[in-house]
Every structure is written in structure tokens, then in C-alpha cells.
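Researcher: First entry.
Model:
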Amino acid sequence: MKKLILLIGIIILNYYFAKAQWYQVPLPEKSQGVLGVYFLNPDTGLINYYIYDSMPHSVFCKTYNKGKNWDLIISSDSFTGYKIYFDNLDTGIMGSRSMGILARTFNGCKNIHRIGGRFSRGIVELIPNKFDKGTYIAVFDSTYKTTNYGNSWVSVYPKTLNSVQFINKSKGYATFQWDNYSSILKTIDAGDSWTKIYTFKNQLVRKLNVLTEDTFFAIFAKINWDNTDSVYKTYDGGKTWLPIMNGLPFNGGSTSNFTDLYFADSRTGYLISGTNGYQAIYKTIDGGNSWHLQQDNFACWIYEFQAIDKNVLFVKPWENKNCIYYTINGGGPVDAIKEKKPMAATYSFYPNPALDRITVQCKGEIPCYANLYILDLQGKVVFQKDIKEAVNEIDLTALSRGIYMVKVVDEKGVWVEKVIKE
């Protein structure tokens, strides 16, 4: 009987570890809440955490073995590093969440010096331009830039930018929200100036992940904060957005909440779902056409990814929560997620000529997830609809008689055909 129980236990454990491999980083024994964390490679990282004793203070520590051992660097009651970034174990910049200050170190936090004066609110984002060392974007109530490791800062945008990222030394993207609108902005001068390229009404671009000038992934949320988030992608630089929600929680339901996403390439991506009390990590290996739950049992509120590469990722907690997770193999063995072999969708429609409606058929991987447009001969869009079914009825009664172009855009490309409305 004991052997049977032991065998069952082994089977359960093997199933669990085959399902997902996100492991908890051991934290210093005295840690009562992680403030900031940054890992330089799969083994080496630095954290700043809180200790609440006679006088609350923060402690900086470093590890060379994924947290099995932590070396104390410095204890401080005057600075907390909420957003931290290090070029190496010596050189780093940090921003305080509550104090509205920035600090810098050139000796691995043994000495920390304030830089840039005091800002009117705590830091929102601290982003390096990884293509230009010493260049950072710091976001408070306004957005600032330094090119000399923080010796001097210049205001580059009068408002708070989010999801700032660079795809090369000069080109970068960010998001901005105001009233009931949000925008995607672009820079072509390394962040010295920003231009709105797309604006969305009643939608917040919560997170933006840009791979190239054409390929974006994004989390959209309704402005009224009703916890109905959606994940979309574009392959034409933002002109067309396709939903990629298959397999995600509450797909088609009333509530969902996503806090971060990271795509290593156009096919491999990770997503954090949930709020305080329940979080889960999902993964896709087909560009978001299907998502697979990897793990949903975490010790605290996980919130944000830090990726080392495609398979090595760390997961940071919400501020003052006391856990960090990591994976070194993409969250599990390759055969734990069966990759779909995508089949290029083909489209056709009938009848042609048509009186009041046409039927558009999609053959290939279902759902198709495409955008359908009808354009007049001047190129003006006179009808638009998202399609994902194998058979889609399109109402033409509002169109005048004449010749139109039916255009379907999906992740594989563009399909165009002429239709005559009688």
C-alpha cells in the first residue's frame, strides 16, 4: 500500500513539473517585501527589499546562484529602488516609487548617489536604450532623458509615457493616455521628440510590445476600467489589429485582466493574467493564435516579466509583495505545449455580382481572425468587419450599385478581390 501511495505521488509530481516549470527564487530571510529586482543573467541578480522593524528601511543584496545565497550590499533608510536597471554588477540606475528621486551607482550599490534633483511624483518607468549605453528614459509626471548615466536630464515629453521601448538606437515607441483616448507614439531621434501615430477612443493601451516597425503586440483595456482586457497583434505597423484571445481566461465572457506580456519573436510569447489573489502565466508558440496555461499557483501577486532571452525569464511581483519567479526553459518542456502547424487561410466569396449580401468563406486554420474591408474605386473604406468564422455573411444593402474591392487582412498577408454590387 505504501509503495502504491508513493508511486501515485511520483506520478502527480511528474505531471506537475511536466506541465510547467516556473520556480520561486529563494529570498533573503528578512525580506518583507520586494521593491525592485534586476537579473543580469540566469544566475546573477540584485534586489532591493523592505524590512519593517524599529524603523522601516530598504536593503540591497546580490546573488550569483538564483537566490540560493544573498550577499548584503547596503542598508538604507533614505532611498528605495523600485525601478532598477544595471549594465553590469557595478553600474546601475534606480528610481524611487514614493520619493520622486533617481540614484546611481558605479560600484554595485556600495555607494548610491542621488541624481537629477527631486521630481513631483514617484517613478513610473525607467528604461534603458540598450543600443546606446548611458542613455535612459525616466518617466514621472513628465518624461525625461539622459545620455550620460544621469549626470543631466532633459525633458522630452510633458506627460507620462508608458511602455517605452527601443528597437534600435534611434527608433522607439511608447503609449500615452488622456481623457477617453490613448495613443501610440514613435520617436526617430532616440527619444528626443515623440509623435502620435495612432489614437484609440475609449481604449487604454495597457502594455505595448514592439518587435519591428511592423509587428506589435498589445494589451488593450476599456477606459472605464471594467476589467475587460484584450490581447491584439498587428503585422502592418498598427493599421490593422487582430484579436488573439483563443485559450485565454474569460474569452468571450465579461471579465479578464492582463498585467504584462512579452514576445521574444513573432511566435513565442508570454502573458500574465489576473489580479491580487489569482494570477496565471500563459504561453503561445504560434503568434497568439492559441494560448496555453502554464501555471496558476503563485505565492504572491506577480505582475511583470523581465526576459533574459526566449527561454529564461524572471517574474517580478507587485510592489512590496514578497516573491520572485523564474524559468530557464520557457516554462516547461517543448512537448508540454503542442505547437499547431499553421495553415495559410484562403478566402473566397459568392455570389458575384451580388444584390444585397455576399458570403465570405475562410479555409484554413479556424478561427481565421482577420479584418475584412470593402473599398470603393477611390480606395475609401465603406465597410469594415472583423471575421473569424468559416462562413461570414456580409450585408451590402447600404452600398450603392457599382464596383468595389473586398480586402481581407490577416497575419499571413492580404487578399483582395473585385465584387460588383447590382
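Researcher: Second entry.
Model:
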Amino acid sequence: MSSSAHRWMLIDDFVNAINEHRASYFEPSDLICGDESMSKWNGLGGTWINIGLPVFVDMDRKPVKGCEIQNSACGKSGVMLRLRLVKSQEDNENLQQDDELNHGTNILLDLLRPWYNTDRVVCADSYFASVQTAEELLQHGLRFIGVVKTATRKYPMRFLSEFELQRHGDYKGVFMKDGNGSPSLFAFVWMDRDRRYFISSVSNLSPGTPYSRVRWRQVEDVETNNPPERVEFVIPQPKAAEMYYAACASIDRHNRCRQDSLQLERKIGTLNFDMRVNSTLLGMMIVDTWLVYSKATGTTELEKDFYTKLSEELIDNNYDTIGMRARRRNRGEETPAAIDRGLARAGLHAHLTPTKKKRKRRDGTITNYKLQGKCKICGEKTTFMCSLCVDARDESPLGSKTPWLCYTSKGKLCFQLHIDSHHQLEG
């Protein structure tokens, strides 16, 4: 086994578990999006050294560099469906189902394997799109819409490029018929900021719903010193383009939620590439949770507030004790609390829990900093509280004080002293 294959084993099990779970328990919509994501990594790695990330990807068109993850997602909810790590050239050659197929076609077929013969519509960018991809997906019971740029084999690029499109929203197209004389694929060019060339096996070229964009424009002459104005542009588009743009940005939106809102890669520092990539995969699952919750409930809750509450519930939970009975302890045995550091065991029994309140300024506005109090034992500032005291305070809040206790560190035993003096835990 090569060194790179051995290092990839630190991540492969997580990816396989995600793929198997989504294929078994999640039913996507009629639209599926194919694209890629990046796990940011600035440490050691690359094919030239046997340490760190085995394959380091650095592309100008990507805002971050590191580990590339090719994926498919539900076109309506944005939930990730299947993931594939970009590994070595040997791994790509093992993926080849047919030597005559393009590399992008083989990858897309692998990302869509669990949903063969479901007649869903697949939207993908130019990395995957070609006439060959559309034909192969038809053979596997899937429809396709994609933007063609470089994979122009069998595509009428020269013919479509000769059409003169004068205004934004103009389009022209041609159809390809099968052996029975019925249309199977069609290619069209649509004018937006520049020409976009599409290949499709679904929908048609009848007028779709126009879309609008608001842009800054200098309406009056610059010499008048008048400021620019916001101008709305309404651009016609065919139904095929409307269907494509309704789903093609699902993975891009998912990436923005993970990188800009959740920000695990910025907040968790690590020198281990496997922890970085695995934390990225965990971030994808957390974003999926938010997407399902927001779509199912129609909530107006902010995304960052949801992540905060979710993390608190994951810290303080008893999910891992379902179907188990607590064993009675004899007196003299260790107390149920984790006395050595004051941490919870999956949030059970007595433990230190962080406050959920925020500090307020003198004018009453709420800050992003946690509320602090003085420890009942040593008097130092802390943001933690005794869980048993918090439960008792919630039951009878009148006359009760906030049970502040400092986090057990540097040899201090405030939590242990508090447990021994205020709570009689069953042995």
C-alpha cells in the first residue's frame, strides 16, 4: 500500500458512511446538482512529499486551496447526496468505467449511481457537461442540462456561434433526433452577459419566466455630477435555462453556508490534514441539518443562531444512552460527574454547562460576548454553571441565584468542592 493510500484511509470511512446513509435514507427532489467543494488546507501536502494532504489542489478559479471534494446535491433543498475525494491519478484510472468516456462523465456517473433509472434531471457545470454525458445519462434513466465550454465533441459549437444575438435574452437552438425520428437532445445558445452554450435532454426552448437583476448605472451624463441609480434589468430566458439556473447553484450556496456562516475551518485550528478534512465533512452535515430544518419549518431564525443552539444541544444530550439503564453505584465509588476536569459525560448527571446568555451594554444592546459571573468557590470570573443548580433554578426561579462555577483547570477543584458541599449524589 502506498503512503498516500494509507493517509486517505483516515478519511475514507467517513465519506463512505455519509454516502451509504444518504443513499439509503434521503430521497432527493426531481433536480440533482453536480459540482465540487473545497476543504481549506494551508499545511504540508502534495504528491511530492509523503506527509500531510496526499493531493493538494490549488486553482485560480477557487477562493480557497486544499482538498477538493466532488459532490452531488439535491437541486431544491441543497442537501448533499454523495461525496467523492479527489485523489491520485491512479484512483481516477480505477474509476474509469469505459476508456472511451470523458473523465467528467465517469465522475458524474459515479456521483449519481444510487439514483439511476429515476428519471431525475441532473444540472452540472462545464466540468461534467458534454454531449457524451447527456447520452450516457439517458442510458441510465436520467435527464441532463449543462453548460458546454471545452468538451465540444459532437456539439454544434461552430454552427451556434455564427448566430447573431443582438440583445440580452436572445437564444437559438438545434435538435438532434434519434433513430426513430423523435428529438432526443437539443443544443442552444443564450445571450446573457456573454454567450452561454447548453446541452439538454429535458425541457424545451419555449419562453420561460424572465429573471431580473438590479445594477448600478450612470443614467445621466457623468459631467452633470449626478450620482448613479439602481436600475432593474429584466432578461428573457427559455424554460431549459430557467430549469438549469434553478438548481445549478445549490452546492455553491451550501459552500457559502459552510465557509462564511459556520466557519469551522476558521475557528478550529489544526496541524493534521485528516482532522481538517473530517471537520469539513462534519460541517457539511451541520449545514444539511440547517437546510432541512429551514425548508421543513419555514423558520425565520437566523442561520448562525441555529448553529449555536445545535452545538449546545449536542454538548448537553443523552442520545447515546437510549435503551440503557443507569447502574446503581455503591457508596464510595466515583461520583457520576467528571470530577477531574468538570466536564460532562455526554451531558449526563452533574456537569458544568456554559451560559447561553449574552452581555449587555449600558444602553441595553446585546453583544456577542457571553455573560460572565463570579465563581461561588474562588470568586474568579467564569461563563460556566452547575447543571444541577441550573435545573433547580428553572424549577423554582424565585429567590435563586445563578450558580456560577469556574472551569476546572490549573489544579483548581471548584466544581468538586461545590458537588461535595451542595449536592448529595446517589452512590
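Model: Note on the second entry: The radius of gyration is 28 Å.
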